[in-house]
Amino acid sequence: MNGNFEAPGRQSTGQDHISNISGGNSSTAQCNRLLIALRRAPITTFQARQLLDIAHPAGRVQTMRDAGYHIVTHWCDDTSQAGRKHHVARYVLIGGDQ
Asked: What is the per-residue pLDDT across 37-57, written as a single tens digit (0 to 9) for each?
């Protein structure tokens, strides 16, 4: 993977649902969605799965780190859709660029 996660010329209007910005299930498409989301705000594992359709957020974060993005992990408690509390990762993009 070349680390070029953003689709050229694509601008978010703020109204777009992030999962529609970069469709598909390829690793690159998932990294694209995650990068767009992280540039807006930190995101938890549950949010990445539910809102971005990323089955394995930790794997995408590692791919992005390997490509040079500085993403830190904070641990937090979050509630699943089933109503159970879990200790999950909260990812924060530092700087925004590679």
From this structure: 999 999 999 999 999 999 999
CB neighbourhood size of 16 (10 A): 12
Q: Does residue 2 form part of some domain?
A: no
pTM, to two decimals = 0.78
Q: Indicate which CATH number applies to the domain containing 30.
A: 1.10.10
Domain range spanning residue 29?
Answer: 19-94
Tell me how far CA of residue 3 lies from CA of 17, 31, 69, 72, in angstroms.
23, 9, 9, 18
Whole-number Å distance between alpha carbons of 6 and 62: 17
Ordered DSSP codes for 46-65:
HHHHHHH--S-HHHHHHHHH
DSSP type of residue 7? P
